Amino acid sequence: MKILADQNMPLVDALFSPLGDVERFDGRTLTAAQAQHADVLLTRSVTQVNEQLLDSNTQLSFVGTATIGIDHIDQGYLQNRGIPFTNAPGCNAIAVAEYVLSAMLVLAQQQQFSLFTKKVAIVGVGNIGQCLADKLAAIGVQTLLVDPPRAARGDSGQWYELEQALAQADIISFHVPLVKEGSHQTRHLLNAERIAALASNKVIINASRGDVIDNAALLARQQSDNDLHLVLDVWENEPHILTELMNYVDLATVHIGGHTLEGKGRGTFMLYQALCQHLGIRAEATLSELLPTPSLNELTLSPSWTLQELGSLVHLIYDVRRDDAIMRQALATEGFDSLRKNYPVRRELSTLRLRGDNPHLSALAALGFSI
Ligand SMILES: NC(=O)c1ccc[n+]([C@@H]2O[C@H](COP(=O)([O-])OP(=O)(O)OC[C@H]3O[C@@H](n4cnc5c(N)ncnc54)[C@H](O)[C@@H]3O)[C@@H](O)[C@H]2O)c1
Ligand SMILES: O=C(O)[C@H](O)[C@H](O)COP(=O)(O)O
Question: This protein's superkingdom (predicted)?
Answer without folding.
Answer: Bacteria
